[in-house]
Inverse folding.
């Protein structure tokens, strides 16, 4: 007797196929065991799973198994749902709604297991990167399970994956304020820094990038800088910071002429970060500096803008870099 193949669909355009697990693969050879534990399937972001239950012959037999509407997870409905849900141990985790809530659902039935949302008030209203974002990260260690995400107001939150409650041992009551301990002054309410991408967790280190208003429409030559940081996953303690615009005395500072490194900002890592756990290396795709299309205020090659930078997973020290465009003015 042939079983009907069904899919689980959300109100927004995202779907999860309920499929049989496949044998485990290597760390960067795709998602294994029928699960999807990180944004790109694995830490290399291969976005691949070696599954074969659904194919060209039976695709037409797929049916909707359940739907979950996100309309009420925020003050207004969201029409740009971009999150990639994670699935671990039969539970689906995702950010959702215009407040960027976190939900846990039974992957087989769509039943809501728990939800968490932080009302950030004026800070959330001023955020340059709002709505549900790209998703979240999952971590497990021993008997502990956590999901971690970044709010629109740029806070890193760790939740108990079983209950949805903030982890009291992480930061302050489960929250690390990412506008602090950032080697620069950022207004806690109006500072224009945030993140749509998910945090990345590898070997008990949480890595977080930064995003801003579009660099093509700067209000001035001065702006917030997009430093990248690593935190201890159990405590939220800051482990390292990589300055995408080098500080005085750091490698690359001399590529910013006329002291332009002092006021220039952006150079964030707003896309997904990849990690090679075997090499203990983090790969950072760094964006352009402030003013995408005009470089007169920032003479020089402008490291590490428009570069791929490899840093040590545990220390954040630069291993190597390749700058794709010197002094970019083409975004």
């Amino acid at each position: 007797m042939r079983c009907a193949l069904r899919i689980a669909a959300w109100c927004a355009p995202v779907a999860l196929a309920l499929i049989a697990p496949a044998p485990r693969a290597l760390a960067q050879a795709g998602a294994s065991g029928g699960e999807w534990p990180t944004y790109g399937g694995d830490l290399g972001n291969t976005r691949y799973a070696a599954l074969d239950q659904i194919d060209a012959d039976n695709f037409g037999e797929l049916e909707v198994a359940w739907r979950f509407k996100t309309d009420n997870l925020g003050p207004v409905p969201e029409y740009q749902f971009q999150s990639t849900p994670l699935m671990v141990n039969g539970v689906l985790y995702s950010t959702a709604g215009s407040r960027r809530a976190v939900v846990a659902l039974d992957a087989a039935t769509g039943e809501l297991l728990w939800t968490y949302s932080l009302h950030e008030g004026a800070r959330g209203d001023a955020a340059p990167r709002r709505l549900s974002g790209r998703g979240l990260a999952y971590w497990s260690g021993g008997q502990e399970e956590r999901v971690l995400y970044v709010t629109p107001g740029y806070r890193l939150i760790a939740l108990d994956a079983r209950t949805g409650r903030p982890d009291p041992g992480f930061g302050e009551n489960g929250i690390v304020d990412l506008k602090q301990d950032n080697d620069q002054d950022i207004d806690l309410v109006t500072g224009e820094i945030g993140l749509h991408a998910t945090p990345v967790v590898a070997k008990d280190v949480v890595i977080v990038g930064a995003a801003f208003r579009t660099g093509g429409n700067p209000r001035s030559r001065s702006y917030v800088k997009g430093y990248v940081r690593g935190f201890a996953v159990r405590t939220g303690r800051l482990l390292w910071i990589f300055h995408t615009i080098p500080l005085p005395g750091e490698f690359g500072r001399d590529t910013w002429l006329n002291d332009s490194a002092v006021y220039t900002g952006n150079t964030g890592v707003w896309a997904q970060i990849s990690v090679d756990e075997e090499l203990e290396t983090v790969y950072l795709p760094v964006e352009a500096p402030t003013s995408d299309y005009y470089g007169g205020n920032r003479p020089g090659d402008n490291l590490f803008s428009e570069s791929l930078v490899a840093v040590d997973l545990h220390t954040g020290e630069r291993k190597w870099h390749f700058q794709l465009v010197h002094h970019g003015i083409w975004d």
